[in-house]
Amino acid sequence: MSFDYSLDFQNIDFRQHPELYRIGKGEQGVLLVEPYKSEILPHWRFKTPDIAKESSEQIYSLFLEYLAQDDFVGADMARKFIQMGYTRSRRYANHKSGRKYKKTSSETGDKKEILPYEVDHIKAESAAIFKAKWIQAKTNEKYLQLLAKHKQLYEK
Asked: What's the superkingdom here (predicted)?
């Protein structure tokens, strides 16, 4: 089931209403689902490998705390933040501005043109740090059990 963007994210506490949470694809909803966004976002950083290591470890620690509480939504949100640490640092590793596309106009309308790669080895190292934690999270046995249970209960 796809992520439901029509919900009233300003007023829903997903810890109290896990039945409303939809996993979606990749990082969908990572900056919407409360109270988890507010709990995890302050730890999310990737500017240097040292910062990325500390950040990924803090978020993974939250991931494990959520699992210990059988809180699938919290664990999935922590997994999404770790994944986003990988994808964003990878984007900055490839494109210094953080922008992958540039809009161009032509006779046939607006188009997106992929900007050339500008390799940043520091951001690439940060990406590798987050990627390792992301794989660790998404293959965690308890996470996989709670994922299956959530899908069975709520995503029919």
From this structure: Bacteria
Instruction: Pick the closest to residue 20 from 7, 34, 39, 36 (CA basis).
Output: 7
* CA distances from residue 154 to 9, 31, 106, 136 in whole angstroms, order as listed: 18, 21, 46, 25
Total domains present in the chain: 1
Is 4 a domain residue? no
**Residue written as token pair 């607006």:** 110
Structural contact between residues 144 and 11, judged by C-beta atoms closer than 8 angstroms: no
Cα gap 8→47, rounded to integer Å: 32
Tens-digit pLDDT profile for residues 125-144: 999 999 999 999 999 999 99
In a domain, 2, yes or no: no
* CA separation for the pair 9, 32 (Å, rounded): 6
